[in-house]
């Protein structure tokens, strides 16, 4: 079974603008509200791949109720903890040339609500994969993912973590199946800058040394890298009209993990993950299976090392 944990889901309010002027009133020419949050996006792509998952997390207040309504259209299996404070609304501002995101902090989670979540976690078993993604809402300390990762690994299941900074570094010792920083997050993690691909591969190898089993480095329109104990692979990002790249990284994780669970073929998982990422970038919302399969044909994986 696959579980996704989105500690901080969101309503993604995507506004299309002809141009964005800071310090002025900007009027949208179009808008859409999507049920967002990284783990939710992962669950939605897994569903496209025909894989069931249960989405876990905290949902709260009137915005939480609206979030549930938005999500109900997708018929995902969910088991959220209801909290008192409001689920956040994340603003995604898009013009023809750039995307600007403003993400809310998320609800305050009380100690009792956190406890309810931890007690709710199903005993995981061997073969389960738990994908933990995104920022943590207010009041949840950086240990939150570590606590859950400890529980998952003690029970013989695997975990994947897609978050940034210390919360990511702390869980590496427990051997996540894969981590997927983008190249900016990876540079920030080691307080460095990259001058070339080799610098990025070296930084990815540091994550392997710290315990990650596989490292995906996403680089938006420049494609992605997969670095494993033995090899490094690169893939291209095909050309296409970028409509909304929000969720491209989550799609990549879903494609990689979903394919890996079925095939244990790293190169194929990387190829399919990249197809999911690019296909989502070319869609208003997340990609569908036919979008993904079309984009897959346009991606080549090259072994670098
Ligand atoms: N403009 C693009 N054109 C083609 N492919 C893209 C584009 N943007 C993203 N992708 C594909 O999706 C993958 C993941 O995208 P990206 O690096 O933006 O992830 P991310 O920063 O985690 O995004 P998010 O947090 O919005 O999910 C990239 O490695 C690439 O394969
Ligand atoms: O603030 P976080 O949790 O880091 O990211 C949240 C978010 O930007 O990630 C998803 C795209 O990856 C969006 O659906 C959502 O708004």
From TrEMBL:
<dbReference type="GO" id="GO:0005524">
    <property type="term" value="F:ATP binding"/>
</dbReference>
<dbReference type="GO" id="GO:2001059">
    <property type="term" value="P:D-tagatose 6-phosphate catabolic process"/>
</dbReference>
<comment type="similarity">
    <text>Belongs to the carbohydrate kinase PfkB family. LacC subfamily.</text>
</comment>
<comment type="similarity">
    <text>Belongs to the carbohydrate kinase pfkB family.</text>
</comment>
<dbReference type="GO" id="GO:0008662">
    <property type="term" value="F:1-phosphofructokinase activity"/>
</dbReference>
<dbReference type="GO" id="GO:0044281">
    <property type="term" value="P:small molecule metabolic process"/>
</dbReference>
<dbReference type="InterPro" id="IPR022463">
    <property type="entry name" value="1-PFruKinase"/>
</dbReference>
<comment type="pathway">
    <text>Carbohydrate metabolism; D-tagatose 6-phosphate degradation; D-glyceraldehyde 3-phosphate and glycerone phosphate from D-tagatose 6-phosphate: step 1/2.</text>
</comment>
<protein>
    <recommendedName>
        <fullName>Tagatose-6-phosphate kinase</fullName>
        <ecNumber>2.7.1.144</ecNumber>
    </recommendedName>
</protein>
<keyword id="KW-0547">Nucleotide-binding</keyword>
<keyword id="KW-0808">Transferase</keyword>
<dbReference type="InterPro" id="IPR029056">
    <property type="entry name" value="Ribokinase-like"/>
</dbReference>
<dbReference type="InterPro" id="IPR017583">
    <property type="entry name" value="Tagatose/fructose_Pkinase"/>
</dbReference>
<feature type="domain" description="Carbohydrate kinase PfkB">
    <location>
        <begin position="8"/>
        <end position="286"/>
    </location>
</feature>
<dbReference type="Pfam" id="PF00294">
    <property type="entry name" value="PfkB"/>
</dbReference>
<dbReference type="GO" id="GO:0009024">
    <property type="term" value="F:tagatose-6-phosphate kinase activity"/>
</dbReference>
<dbReference type="GO" id="GO:0016052">
    <property type="term" value="P:carbohydrate catabolic process"/>
</dbReference>
<keyword id="KW-0418">Kinase</keyword>
<dbReference type="GO" id="GO:0005829">
    <property type="term" value="C:cytosol"/>
</dbReference>
<keyword id="KW-0067">ATP-binding</keyword>
<dbReference type="GO" id="GO:0005988">
    <property type="term" value="P:lactose metabolic process"/>
</dbReference>
<keyword id="KW-0423">Lactose metabolism</keyword>
<dbReference type="InterPro" id="IPR011611">
    <property type="entry name" value="PfkB_dom"/>
</dbReference>
<dbReference type="InterPro" id="IPR002173">
    <property type="entry name" value="Carboh/pur_kinase_PfkB_CS"/>
</dbReference>
<comment type="function">
    <text>Catalyzes the ATP-dependent phosphorylation of fructose-l-phosphate to fructose-l,6-bisphosphate.</text>
</comment>
């Amino acid at each position: 079974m696959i579980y996704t944990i989105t500690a901080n889901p969101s309503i993604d309010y995507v506004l299309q603008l002809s141009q964005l002027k800071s310090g002025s009133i900007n009027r949208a020419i179009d808008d859409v509200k999507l049920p967002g949050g990284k783990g939710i996006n992962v669950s939605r792509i897994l569903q496209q791949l025909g894989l069931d998952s249960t989405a876990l997390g905290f949902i709260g207040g009137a915005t939480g109720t609206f979030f549930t309504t938005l999500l109900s259209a997708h018929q995902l299996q969910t088991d959220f903890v209801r909290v008192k404070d409001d689920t956040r609304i994340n603003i995604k501002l898009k013009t023809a040339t750039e995307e600007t995101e403003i993400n809310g902090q998320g609800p305050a989670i009380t100690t009792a609500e956190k406890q309810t979540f931890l007690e709710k976690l199903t005993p995981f078993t061997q073969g389960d994969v738990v994908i933990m993604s995104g920022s943590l809402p207010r009041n949840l300390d950086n240990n939150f993912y570590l606590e859950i990762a400890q529980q998952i690994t003690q029970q013989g299941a695997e975990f994947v973590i897609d978050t940034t900074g210390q919360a990511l570094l702390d869980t590496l010792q427990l051997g996540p199946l894969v981590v997927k920083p983008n190249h900016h997050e990876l540079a920030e993690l080691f307080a460095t800058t990259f001058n070339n691909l080799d610098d990025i591969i070296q930084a990815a190898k540091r994550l392997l040394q710290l315990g990650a089993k596989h490292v995906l480095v996403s680089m938006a329109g420049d494609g992605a890298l997969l670095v494993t104990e033995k090899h490094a692979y690169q893939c291209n990002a095909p050309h296409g009209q970028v409509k909304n790249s929000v969720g491209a990284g989550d799609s990549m994780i879903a494609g990689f993990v979903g394919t890996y669970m079925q095939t244990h073929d790293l190169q194929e998982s990387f190829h399919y993950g990249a197809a999911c990422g690019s296909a989502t970038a070319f869609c208003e919302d997340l990609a569908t299976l036919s979008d993904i399969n079309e984009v897959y044909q346009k991606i080549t994986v090259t072994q670098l090392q």
